[in-house]
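Throughout this chapter, every protein is written as a compact record of paired, labelled lines. The reader may check this reading against the record printed directly beneath this paragraph:
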Amino acid sequence: MLSQSRRQSLSFFIVKRWLVLGYLVLLTGLFWLPSGSVYTKVFYALIAFPALLALALKPRRCSDLLHDPMVLVFLVFSAWMLTTLAWSGTDDNFGGLVKRPLYLLLFMAACSLIALESRELLLGTLRTAAMLVAFAALVSLGWFLLEPPPENRLIGTGALRNPLLTSHVLGMFCTYWIATWLSRDTRQEWLAPLMTLPILLALLATGSRTPLMALVVTSLWMLLITPRRAALLILTIAVAGGLCLAFSPDLLLQRGGSFRPQIWADALRQAQDHLWLGHGYDNRFVFIIEGLSTILSDPHNVELAVLLELGLVGLGFWLVLHGLGLWHCLRQRKDKAFQVASALVVYGLAAGMTEGSSFLSRPNESWFLIWIPLSLVIALAIQKRGLGKE
């Protein structure tokens, strides 16, 4: 048995060194790790395992985690997901699917453990990662200009594999810096715009319109948080959009609706077959669109994916989870950290309305739209609640 002092020292090392390194790698690793499989394995080694070890050393932290309403809703959502496997047509290994919510729970625990030890350390690591991503975006732009890919759309470096998924990651960090600027104080006011510029340029180079739409929605949300500054941002976006339509309309209009309305209509039709309970988690779908030779399997809408697989029951839990996150942020809207966190959650929700279907997966680009923002809110809320108990 370890003595109390040794347990404290080991816990300190795990949380303030091991988990912090893991959080930084999770946020930036897609830009420099060689593949998605390596990225996932690094997550297991630097976040999942040490989080589990830290909880074993300090079991009372489990109580802190399980007293959070968002965590409880996530557990209910996960239990329902596992229940739907009974009628799902998935071909994946059952054990592998069961582990997915466990990994997410450990990630939430990791963020919360860091915040409980030092909120500034969690936020500082996120800020450091955002700076590194700005540098990575600059490098990606350089490669893009020197060796343009066949489709002339920026893919990025490392484990990033296509422009759309790259835009998920860049979009979250672009939102982070914009929200940081909106919630800024007078110190280092120049830093956020400086960091935003290369990320925004790289985002535009991906050719994806989803993050641009999501940034507009996020700016509208920020009117509730920082009205004057958000109004200035919206005016700037409106002017930029007008100039873009006037001088380069193809940038926004050349691909039309990309068959989104037809895909969504077919997804809703299929959802009606099992409206309440869903077709089962990880079930496979086919969307046949008239005028399109390619057969699609992605509804290009996260909420529709939840509805298809988990039904109205699962979608209800999903919406409650996000609603609680935004409610936490609104209640603490004078706190700059919650202001930024709320922007990330809203950005992910808005981006997920036109892209994505991977809502409960191993670590990948979709986490930057869903689980990284939600876990940040959970960590901040648990830390705030911990201060109230002291």
Q: What stands out?
A: The mean pLDDT is 90. The chain is about 70% helix and 0% strand. Residues 4-389 form one domain.
